[in-house]
Known about the structure:
192 residues; alpha/beta; 5-stranded mixed sheet; elongated
Amino acid sequence: LLAGLLLWGDAAALSALPAAGASPWPETMAWIRDNTAPQARLHSFSAPNIMLWTGRSAVTSFRDVSLRDHWLAKYLHNGIEYVVLEEDASRWEHMPGAWQAEVYRLGVWAASSPYVTAVFRSPADRTIVYRIQHPQPERFMKAWKLFGEAMMMRRERGPVRAKLLEAFALEPEMECVKAALSGAGLRPPLIP
């Protein structure tokens, strides 16, 4: 990391690094240790720090994700229970545009999903921890699979509509299904 920052010539980021042996995000790391199960899996752009300072499993990125529902499906499929984000993403400004876009999208997706809740915020660390909880992950995954199948058979309007409506019945909050239904000139059924 240090070599990468030096290559980018980012003196501000270098000065913001914690002292040798000091925990980055001390409040956040303490909260994670005290409030998550030892087997909890987290997502963070600072996954190595999470693993080192909390002993929890963490991943850094799912680069192939471009929809909120796909992001949630990936998290549920991979057992990701928490996402740790920085409220001030300016330290990532030196990174390539695709990375910056991912940092931005994750914050928007986490804040907008009905299955994701902010559970901890540290003004000192400038971080926020979200909890991912779905009452029936297998139901969400089935709806996601139906959506994917529908997208593979785009020209067959009747079967596409049937799969999308089945997915909508399982997950009425799945934005990609609602968008696909309306984009195809098909209205989702009214929810009583």
